[in-house]
Design a protein that fits this description.
The complex is a heterodimer of chains A (145) and B (89). Chain A is of the alpha+beta class and 145 residues long. Helix content of chain A is 30%, strand content 33%. Chain A has 3 helices and 8 strands, in the order βαββαβββαββ. In chain A, helix 2 packs antiparallel against helix 3 (99-116). With 89 residues, chain B is α+β, with helices and mostly antiparallel strands. The longest helix of chain B has 11 residues, at 38-48. Chain B is globular, with a radius of gyration of 13 Å. The chains are: A alpha+beta (145), B alpha+beta (89). Chains A and B meet through helix 2, helix 3 and strand 7 of A and strand 5 of B.
Amino acid sequence: MPYLSTAPLSIEELLAEVAAPHSGGTCVFLGTVRDGPDDGGVTAIEYSAYDAMAEAELDRIVSETRRQWPEARVAVRHRLGLVAAEEASVAIAVATSHRADAFAACRYVIEQVKQRLPVWKKELRADGTATWVDPSGHPSMVGPQ
Amino acid sequence: MNRVAGAVGTVRIRFFARYAELAGRSEGTLSLPLPATVSDVIQRIRDEWPGTSALPAQPLAALNLRHVRLDAPVADGDELAFLPPLAGG
């Protein structure tokens, strides 16, 4: 199942994927393109990825989540290409029997995505400039090894 | 001579995002004596491929679709990618 998509992300699709009779709590997280006061007029972000690795990494993250919360149903999508401000770049849905596990597992997925996913973003601004986003300020080691 | 078992390996190198811009290419292949590590590959391409000297000396690296440390060994036929600071989510 592909985790990466160039089309707008559908929350309904993710909810349908995780729905199950035994689930009592479903947690949805959306990461959206931001143009905050310190972001300098961001109109859109262009996402690119090391596609094959991003798919493999998301598969590993989902597997780890299911190992840690065996009853959890997990769905995740990451957007690629041009994403306008306010649109979702990442969407995660996790359904479990009880809400505490749903929140915890959903949090696990997004934190792992931020740390490990080989995805890059170029911020496009209203003044015509574009910059690569470097959240860390410097390269750092990630991953299990 | 590239076929001598254990002597020389060929590695597919990939660059992404800003690193592809700096290197002026998104991929290439490198033959080098084995055993060798990811660090050895970095040193070789920084010396031999124009543009790649602009890459950091210790970038994030992925070998065959997994994050690895720079002291990880490379083998013939591996795909080695250099990753700018990750910005997913």
